[in-house]
Every structure is written in structure tokens, then in C-alpha cells.
Design brief:
- Residues 7-74 form the HTH gntR-type domain.
- It comes from Marinobacter xestospongiae.
- This is GntR family transcriptional regulator.
- Keywords: DNA-binding, Transcription, Transcription regulation.
- This protein is mainly alpha-helical.
- It has two domains: 9-71, Arc Repressor Mutant, subunit A (Orthogonal Bundle), CATH 1.10.10.10; 76-219, Four Helix Bundle (Hemerythrin (Met), subunit A) (Up-down Bundle).
- It contains ten helices and three strands.
- It has helices spanning 9-22, 34-41, 45-57, 76-100, 103-122, 126-144, 147-166, 168-172, 175-190, 194-216, and strands at residues 31-32, 61-64, 68-71.
- A three-stranded antiparallel sheet has the order 1-3-2.
- Strand 2 (61-64) and strand 3 (68-71) form a beta hairpin.
- The radius of gyration is 19 Å and the shape is globular.
- It starts with 8 loop residues before the first helix and ends in a 13-residue tail after the last helix.
């Protein structure tokens, strides 16, 4: 990724470092040195520090007193916990969407879902599908209008994207499952069927969790719940 001076410097630094973490250039547990990053990007330490706080909100770094920032771990247990929380946040979003969407929202929602479907049919880059899926989530957040839920989901995007980088090959072979999920969930929302929507989300994200766990532990068949921290 080529660094470019942005409108919001700290956020762009955060995006730059986030991509390094998501792609494994910065490894889990690796310390991120403010002075080194500031010199590399020719920016101030204050801007780097602000960016690191953003990465902490995004669940990509831990800031440890007197030690600084380190990239968060992403082993099987951490990934499973990540998907537990993310799945429940999405369930909350969809429940509120079912309650609040109005006929004037229908075309906009369906338009974004169509973009995901088109990306799936093209069997394009996995991350392009993920970004289109996030666009759907963003529109749903706008319709629901809960700023706290929106903030929580937005902060999870980079950590979730990180898991897709790790499992891209497995996910690419399973795009039909994703297409089926969006079709089923869309129909459940249009029907205002909470039970069907919850079922679609639970089944899909449990499946996605397994893809991630396989990517993280390709030779380990032990369930994540039985592994030690």
C-alpha cells in the first residue's frame, strides 16, 4: 500500500497500519514503534499515537501501559470470540431493521444487496465481496438510526476483514453459501420474519467461523472451546 497524505492524517495512518496488520506484514503480538512509523511516513509522533488509538478501537492493536502498542492476537480462540460478538451485533441490527424499514427504503436496500450478488456472480476478489457486504450493513445502520450500534459495528470492520484475509482461499470456494445467505436474509427482512432472520444469521456465521478456525488451525481438529487461552 502506497502511503498518501490524507485529509485526516491520523485516520489515514490508521488505515495504512491496519492493512499491514490485516495482511500479516505486522504479525500478531508484534510491537508497533511510534518513532519508527513516524519516521517512515514522515509524520509526527502525535499523529501516529492518535492513529494507534483508532486501531485500538478497531480491535487491531492493544495499547499496554509503559510498553506501547502491539498487534492483537488472532488465534482460533480470539477469532471465535470475535465472531460471537459480531454475530450478535448483526442480529440486533437486523431485528431493528425489521421493525423500522419502510417502503421508501426498499429500493436502496435491494440496490446494495444486488451489488453483493453481482460481485458473487463475478467470483471476483473476496475482499470486494466483503466491502460490498459492509456497504449493505452501512445502509441498514442508516435506516435503523442507532448511533451506538453503528459505532460498534463500524469498529468491528477491520478485525473482521482481517479474518477474511486469512481464510480467503476457503471463502472463495464457498461463495454460493454467501449468496444463499443474502437471499434468505433479504427475504426474511422483507417478510419481517425475525425467526427466519435469526436462523439465517446464526447458520451463516457459525459456518464462517468454522472457515476461519480451519484457516487458523489447518491441522488441528480440536474444537476451539476446548483449547486453552
Amino acid at each position: 500500500m502506497e502511503f498518501q497524505v490524507p485529509n485526516t492524517l491520523a485516520e489515514q495512518i490508521a488505515n495504512f497500519l491496519a492493512e499491514r496488520i490485516m495482511t500479516g506484514q505486522i504479525r500478531p503480538g508484534e510491537r508497533i514503534h511510534e518513532v519508527k512509523i513516524a519516521a517512515e511516513l514522515e509524520v509526527s509522533r502525535a499523529s501516529v499515537k492518535e492513529a494507534l488509538y483508532t486501531l485500538e478501537r478497531w480491535h487491531l492493536v492493544d495499547i499496554i501501559p509503559r510498553k506501547g502498542a502491539v498487534a492483537t492476537w488472532l488465534d482460533a480462540e480470539h477469532a471465535s470470540e470475535l465472531y460471537d460478538v459480531y454475530m450478535h451485533l448483526l442480529q440486533m441490527l437486523v431485528e431493528r431493521l425489521i421493525d423500522r424499514w419502510q417502503p421508501e427504503h426498499r429500493d436502496r436496500l435491494l440496490g446494495h444487496i444486488e451489488q453483493v450478488s453481482r460481485r458473487l456472480q463475478e467470483r471476483t476478489d473476496v475482499l470486494a465481496v466483503v466491502e460490498a457486504s459492509f456497504d449493505v450493513m452501512d445502509v441498514c445502520c442508516e435506516v435503523v438510526g442507532n448511533p451506538y450500534l453503528t459505532e460498534a459495528l463500524t469498529n468491528f470492520k477491520p478485525a473482521v476483514s482481517r479474518t477474511y484475509y486469512l481464510s480467503a482461499d476457503r471463502y472463495r470456494q464457498d461463495l454460493r453459501r454467501t449468496a444463499s445467505f443474502f437471499k434468505g436474509l433479504t427475504q426474511a427482512v422483507l417478510d419481517r420474519d425475525r425467526v427466519a432472520a435469526a436462523h439465517e444469521i446464526t447458520e451463516f456465521f457459525n459456518h464462517q467461523r468454522q472457515l476461519i478456525l480451519q484457516a487458523l488451525s489447518p491441522d488441528d481438529t480440536t474444537p476451539a472451546s476446548s483449547r486453552s487461552a
